[in-house]
Amino acid sequence: MSIAIVNSSTIVSDTDGQTLVAGINQILPQFCKDWNHPTYTAIYVAKNKQTSIPIRIYILDNPDVNGAFGYHDFNSNIPLGKCFAKTVLEDGGAILYSPSGKTTIAQVVAHEIFELLTDPQCNGWWDIGDGKTLFARETCDPVQGNDVIVQVITSPAKTILDAKTRKIVTKQAIIQKVGLSDWILPAWSNPQNTKGPFNHLKTLKAPFTLDTGGYVIQMTGEQGQSFAMKFGSKVTEEQKAKYMKKSSRFSKKTT
What CATH class does 1-122 carry? Predict the structure, then answer.
């Protein structure tokens, strides 16, 4: 099965877009296996090209939700996701890889793919086991900010004839790091599970816990009367304000 990554951005080149998708395809099979999904492959759709693949993630310049890095939604019975390149870069992020750990466009795309596949209608909840509290069914929010780093060979090693020395030389492969999104595992959503692991990078120690940069949308009450958010220990006040304003199940859920 396929999911299209459609590059409609003036910022992300087709070369970077192809590298981004190659990186995602290194970890997407593992994510699908972890969550018992059919195996998906991300297909890159270059600028000004069309696709018949129904499930799509769009890379765009400007957000249609102020301040959002991205979100996933459900339109006309088809799940879709969006990533906003300018917002990521204006926040100090990068397209493919950030040595400082800032958000990358690649990470946002991976985040939205993983969450879209696990909750395509964007309306699922997990019962945390106390009979009154539900957490939004989001597979990346609790580990927001965790980087899964992969390496993509953008130019393979090759042997050539040096024009000056007339000797055979080997040109080394060019390798690009790509920073992608961590994800929780099904054990995280089982309040009786004590063994784990609870996320791909194995940093969480118990169900329904958050990593330092993570967050979760919470609903409480028998009729879902109250919405709130929980945050990891290193989420800044600026980030909290952004998540509180933008992240909800009664509007668009944003990264």
Answer: alpha beta
